Amino acid sequence: MKIKIVRSILEANDRIAEENRLLFKEKGLFVVNLMSGPGAGKTSVLVETIKRLKEKGVQSAVIEGDIEGTEDADRISALEVPVVQINTGGACHLDANMVRQAVQDLELNGAKILFIENVGNLVCPAEFYVGEDMKVMVLSVTEGEDKPTKYPLMFRESKTLLINKIDLLPYLDLDLEKLKNTASKINPSLKMFDISCKTGKGIDKWVDYLLEFIN
Ligand code: MG
Ligand code: ZN
Asked: Which of 14, 51, 83, 93 has the highest CB neighbour number within 10 Å of its CB?
């Protein structure tokens, strides 16, 4: 019985997500669903990415998902890009319906790329398609090597993995190669970038890759 209910929720979600996808296409938007556990640095990644895209003449728009509060949306808003905050009021992920409502409030102002910053959570954000073109996962090196084994779904669903805070590697026992090998076993086509929002290392490479998808 329970399994049946979960399945119908996901089917209803996918129908709305498909409508979102068509709407994004119509508006000429490339859409990134940015996911991670809490504190991996999604908002910092967004700030650094949006700045560089702007330098290349590409305007961004952002939907910020948080359980409560507007801290992240305020940081994004300071970059003078359109941003809409979704407060899920307890829900630990975004679903297609929340995104559909947020898009209605978004002034695109010529944006070519829409970033949807999901709620910080390593589990269910990966289960809900919201109509995006690409799922991107951020993992901080402080989270350890065991995350791909313990939370395989997000690694499997993501096209790209940004391994963040690599400036902290000298202070950690993390085996970066081992982490990457484990992630590759779960998702052989996963594209990975080592980045640091603090030093800027690797960000240009990631942004160049992202630009290939934007027309
Ligand atoms: Mg955030
Ligand atoms: Zn959830």
From this structure: 83
The pLDDT assigned to 16 comes to 97
Assessment of whether the complete model's pTM goes beyond 0.90: yes
pLDDT for res 3: 63
Residues 6 or more apart whose CB falls under 8 angstroms from that of 3 comprise: none
Tokens representing 194 are: 């080592």
Ligand nearest to the CA of 44: 1
Please tell me the distance from the alpha carbon of residue 144 to that of residue 105, in angstroms, as a whole number: 38
Mean pLDDT of 189-209: 98
pLDDT at 10 over 90: no
Give, as residue ranges, everything with CB less than 5 Å from ion ligand 1: 42-43, 72
Rounded to an integer, what distance in angstroms lies between the CA atom of residue 182 and that of residue 194? 15
Tell me the ligand closest to 66's alpha carbon: 1
Number of the ligand closest to the Cα of 88: 2
- Ion ligand 2: protein residues whose beta carbon lies under 5 Å: 92-93, 124
Structure tokens at 110: 């010529």
User: φ, ψ for residue 53 (rounded to 5)?
Assistant: -60, -40
